[in-house]
Design goal:
Length: 164
């Protein structure tokens, strides 16, 4: 939570102190702001969609395990979910293993565009996200290959379609 407070304070303080404060500062920013919002919401919706795809794997497993437990008369196991690992196949999961990371980067890129190229906190946050999440995605891809095999993972990249 302290991270969110520091991040929000940095961005809010920057925009209040250095962002556009006069009508002249706002002149000509409409297209940039609209473009930034479009990019932001595309990333936001992608993030929600791909996170939900991951949750659906667990929900489907819970439904299957509940049906099995009820059929076998094991009431104590109803509602408990054993860990289930699958390779998601919908949306950008067809191309990468961590599209929710990529979507979040798109979100923050859009926010940076809205704030303006000089919005240091937004740019810094985006850079921090990319530099901290990329190693996690690369490590996660290695885990997927070890768990499911190179044939099952195929040409899927870790986080950026066609690149990483």
């Amino acid at each position: 939570m302290s991270f969110q407070v520091i991040n929000g304070t940095s961005i809010g303080g920057y925009l209040a102190g250095y962002g556009p404060t006069t009508q002249q500062d706002w002149a000509g920013t409409t297209i940039r702001i609209q473009l930034g919002l479009l990019i932001f919401f595309a990333g936001f919706l992608g993030n929600i969609y791909h996170d939900d795809e991951l949750r659906e794997i667990r929900r489907a497993a819970a439904r299957k395990q509940t049906r099995k437990a009820e059929t076998q008369g094991e009431r104590s196991k109803v509602g408990k979910v054993d860990k289930v690992y699958e390779v998601p196949e919908n949306g950008l999961f067809r191309l990468v293993l961590y599209p929710h990371f990529f979507s979040e980067w798109i979100e923050w890129c859009g926010f940076w565009v809205v704030g303006g190229w000089g919005c240091v906190p937004a740019r810094t946050f985006l850079i921090n996200e990319v530099t901290t999440m990329t190693p996690r995605a690369l490590s996660g891809r290695r885990w997927y290959v070890a768990r499911f095999g190179k044939e099952r993972i195929g040409t899927k990249r870790a986080v950026i379609p066609g690149l990483i």
